Amino acid sequence: MKDRQRAWTMAGLRYTQAPIVVLTLVSMMFNIEGLNWNSPIDHFETFSGGGSVTMGEVEAGRTAVSFDIIHDEVKQSMLTRPGFCNALFWALNLKPGAGKVTAPVCSTWVFMSSGSTKRSRTNPLGSPSSPACQEANVMLCRLLILLMVCSAKGCWWVLEQPASSVMPYHPLFQKFLQLRGIAVRKLYTCVGWFGAPSLKPTHLFSSHIEIEDLNSLARKNFVPRQVENVVHYVDSQGKPRICGGRHLKSSQTYPRRFGRALATIRTSNRRAVQKKAKAFLKKAMTAKTSAADCRPRINNQWIEGADLKPVFTYLSV
Ligand SMILES: C[S@@+](CC[C@H](N)C(=O)[O-])C[C@H]1O[C@@H](n2cnc3c(N)ncnc32)[C@H](O)[C@@H]1O
After folding, report:
1. 314 is a domain residue
2. How confident is the model at residue 221 (pLDDT cuts 50, 70, 90)?
3. In whole angstroms, how far apart are CA 154 and each of 68, 111, 260, 273?
């Protein structure tokens, strides 16, 4: 299985013209002795929190792995070297056409925190002096590398962000969108339509058009309960301000119905997604001219953006 996973992933990465640094990273992962490649999985959820999506997958009879710092501060943190390598292993261990859902930490990307983060559509990287912004930037770039690996095997990935998030304007997110053969869809939905206490308007970015089936399972006649996600106030200089309210943190957990709905559309589209993955891999494996992106400027952007130097050092010892 290891050899097949390696051949598929490398061919897919070359076909999509991913940066060569990602192929190097992947090939180092395959060179690690003792990893078990014989039980590939159907689904991988990163930043899984309450794990509703993973539970939905398991209920549907599929093998699913969740990854979140709440389970292990080192081995399940996207920002540590072992944590990121662990996440990369699970992405590499997905079956072709498998699923991946991810809801990266949004606190520094949303409108509500823009006063302190200085993030905007024209300044998506945010304040260089904000450690929270810098960490979130690294987290995003590492996640995009995982999504490159998923795309290389025709996996159906979904990235969720609140509607006001400027994450998609990050320059490497934009570069990711330009990879060959990746046609990303954006679906507007509301987590409240699936039973969350507040409406929570959201964008789902996805590798597959099938994501559009999700809203057919929504209950759009949502009546919000009394929750306080946003507080409006006036500061000492008389300026109107907003900040997170007492229910904001808990509002990030998906209701069970949201996880089940995602699993349901995965089940109903399983054949079509498998067929697409097979066709994609066939094209990638037989393409005559496919080469990874070797431009130093681009590769350096990914090395810096995802803070890959310490990861390479970790993998080489
Ligand atoms: C926006 S929430 C996602 C919530 C999730 N969708 C749910 O249903 O509970 C982001 C998640 O990222 C996790 N997280 C924060 N920092 C992390 C890190 N460095 N590595 C991995 N997970 C992290 C948090 O614990 C939180 O559960």
Report:
1. no
2. confident
3. 24, 33, 22, 8
Residue 297 forms part of a structural domain:
yes
* Helix residue ranges per DSSP H, 153-269: 171-177, 256-268
Range of the domain at 197: 2-209+224-301
pLDDT of res. 222 = 75
Taking CA atoms only, the protein residue closest to ligand 1 atom 16 is 69
| Per-residue pLDDT, 193 | 95
The count of structural domains within the chain is 1
User: What tens digit of pLDDT does each residue of 69-80 get?
Assistant: 999 999 999 999
Q: Which atom of ligand 1 is nearest to the CA of 68?
A: 22
Inside any domain, residue 308: no
The residue-averaged pLDDT of 122-135 equals 97
Atom of ligand 1 at shortest range from CA of 83: 20
Cα(295) to centroid of ligand 1, in Å? 33
Ligand 1 site, residue 217, Cβ cutoff 6 A: no
pLDDT for 225 beyond 80: no
What number does the ligand 1 atom closest to the CA of 78 have?
A: 20
How much is the pLDDT for 226? 62
- Domain for residue 219, yes or no? no
Ligand 1 proximity of 55 Cβ (cutoff 6 Å): no
**Quick one: tokens of 138?**
């690294």
Distance in Å, CA 198 to ligand 1 centroid? 19
CATH number of the domain where residue 162 is located: 3.40.50.150
Can you tell me which atom of ligand 1 is nearest the CA of 50?
Answer: 9
Q: Ligand 1 pocket: which of 107, 139, 252 to mutate (most atoms <8 Å of CB)?
A: 252
For residue 274, with 0-12 CB atoms within 10 Å meaning exposed, 13-18 middle and 19 or more buried, which class applies?
A: middle
Is 45's C-beta closer than 6 angstroms to any atom of ligand 1?
no
Q: What string of DSSP letters covers 68-96? A: -TTT-TTTT-TTSHHHHHHHHHHHHTEEE
Q: Which helix (H) or strand (E) holds 198?
A: none
For the whole prediction, is pTM greater than 0.90? yes
DSSP code of 33? T
